[in-house]
Each structure stands twice: as structure tokens, then as C-alpha cells.
Amino acid sequence: MRRLVDSVLVTNAGDQVILSTGSRDGLSLRGDLERVEQAVTLLRSGVDDSEINADRLLADLVAALTHMGWLTSEPPQSPAESTGRLARQHGYLTLFAPDARELQSRIAACSIMLLGVGGIGAVAAQHLGAAGVGRIVAVDPDVVELHNLNRQLPYTTRDVGAPKVEALSARLRDFAPETEVVPVRRRVASGADLDGLPHVDLVLIGADEPAELADVVWRWCRERGVAMSRAAVGHEHGYWGPLLSPRDGHCHVCFEQAREAGLSRERRLEGGHGPTPWSFGATNTVIAAWAVHDIVQYVATSECPTLNRRAHLDFAHGELHFLDGPRCCSCNR
Asked: What predicted TM-score, i.e. pTM, was given to this entire model?
């Protein structure tokens, strides 16, 4: 069976029928538009090979859509799926690849560690749970404080004084009961602090202390073939990535050397004072959400926009920049 993926939009523009996913290049179909629309309608519900072979227009359309990557062999959503918690995510996943159920099964099978469940990690946990990630290992030593509540949105005034990892676990059970949350109240300062924790496929660093945390985590991840990503927010900017995969030859040390060599004087000054005590909910939310977007795409497809690449968002000017990492490791560390 061949079926048009759910993310493809169909527009009758008068003299042509346009298939697109919004921002992507579309497919313009001319000729007998009534027949074209009939063929597209058939593909919405799915057609088998005998139907395709019997209709030249349908066969040509299938060939073009196959080239675009817009056909799937999966059947449409069942009534139960179409009303389930993840129903609205189904079509979005087909922007990543055609087979949404397969992608969702990979998301459900993955395990993500969050180092720090504060401004970045708490919001990231919400989105990971909402996306159907199978397990979240939440690692943080702190308790909820009142000043956290402007940006660490899973927590409420009732949680003040409670360990963050316990409060987060309770919150995720409320809206993402399929996601297993493993709360670990621990400060991570060395690789040994990560030993003995459940297996994970990726670590997202949202904590900003100690200063050498990313170096420590990378060594631990590299030895185990575990992917790593980072996200942080400053006064006027935030970043997410790079998402680094040891199995693909990526290297945190080489990436940081290249990044620091390209820093302007202003960026050196900005990063030289350590973490800022000031933080705003909206900026934390947007960076955490983008980090999760890329992580979910990566666990589903092994690709994402920040694979070996950092995204830097300038809040003051609304500008987004990317920094590409070296293609391969040259430091052997």
C-alpha cells in the first residue's frame, strides 16, 4: 500500500494543484485537475500496487511523491489513534520521515538523561514527556525555591522545598503516564557520579555548574557511545547544541576549540563571568523547546539541525546563527 503522508497540504490554485508541507518546495500538478484531485484523494486513504499499475496518472504521481519522500506504507490512523494523546504529533513526525508510527516507536524506546532540571531541564522534561519519550532520568541535587517559578514551569508553590526531581516526576505522571521518570537527587562533578544510573541513549546538559561539567560528561558519554547535547540561556542570547554522537566521530573537545577560536571579544566577555543570576521564563522556554525538538528528531531519524552544530539565538535582535563543528576528531581525547 502507498499513502500520502499526513503533513502534505493540498491546494487548488485554479490552474494547478499544489502539494507542499508549507515551507518546503511543493509539487505542482497541471492537466486534468479533476483527475489529479481524485488521484490525490485516493492516495490520502491509501492505494495498492494493482490500482497504481492500472492508472498512468496515479503511477506518475506515485513516482513523483516517492522521489519527494511523501509516501508511506503505513495505514491511516485508527479511530483510537486519532483521539489519543499523541494524535496531533502523528502528522508532524512525517516532516522528519514518512513512517510516523515507526518514528514514534523509536521515541518511545529511547531513554534521555537530563543533567539539571531547572530553567532548561524542567521545561525540556515537559516536552520530552509530551512527545512520548520512554524514559527520562532526571538528575539534580536541588530543591524547588520560590524564585524558580518564573521559568521552571512544571513546579508550583506547593513544591517549594521539595526535591526538584521528585516534584518533576509527580508532574510528568499527571500528563505523560507512559513515560518512566527516574529521579536522581545528585550533584554531578565527575564521571563516577553518573556510573550506576540506568542506561540512556542521550544526555542533555541543562546545568551550568561545575564549569567543567560538559567536559566530564563528554568523556563519560564517549566511552559508552552515548550522544550528548547542551542548552543554556544568558542575558541576551541562548543556545542549543551541538548534539554530538561519538559513534559518528563527533568530538566535544574539538568543537569547543573551534568555537573558542572564532569568538569575538564581546562573546568572550559575555561568557567569562560565569552563569548569570538573572533569568526570564520565555527565553528559557524557547531554548529548551528547540533543544527537545532536535533531540526528538535525532532519536527518531539519527538526524537533526544541530547534529555537530550549535544554534545561537540572539534575543535582543531576533537573530539565529549556526556554528558547524569539525567533521572529525583530531585531538584523540
From this structure: 0.93
